[in-house]
Amino acid sequence: MDKGYEKEVFKSISLKASVAKKFNSYCKKLSMSKSMTLLLMLEFFEDNGISPTESMGPKMQTLENLIKKRINGVIAILKDIEKGQTKPTVAMMQSLFQEAEPKKQPLILEKKNTEEKQPKYQERNQQDL
């Protein structure tokens, strides 16, 4: 029994046999009674302001445009966050790390001195031979 409609009387509606067969199979898919299925269909059309004779084209285009506007709004918010928060924070962090890095100065090593001295020493040994 349909909840809330138990005490209502039944009225008959005349339908063509092919339409009645299609409607019965649709009711079985929804697992609802014929009365509730028809009521659900009528409420859908009324709530959405559409008529079965209208095409869904303009309504779907309106929905698509609304979604595109919202996506563009989200993109604008993300760009604003990037400009206002992310990039300045990254710049500050980079400046801190650059100041924290020790300045690279060439170290005075004895290797340079020994390298310069070795060829002279070798030259002397070769001259002595």
From TrEMBL:
Q: Where is this region: Disordered?
A: 102-129
Q: Which InterPro entries match?
A: BfmA-like_N
Spell out the NCBIfam families in the cross-references.
mob_BfmA_Nterm
**The protein, known as:** Uncharacterized protein
What organism is the protein native to? Christiangramia forsetii
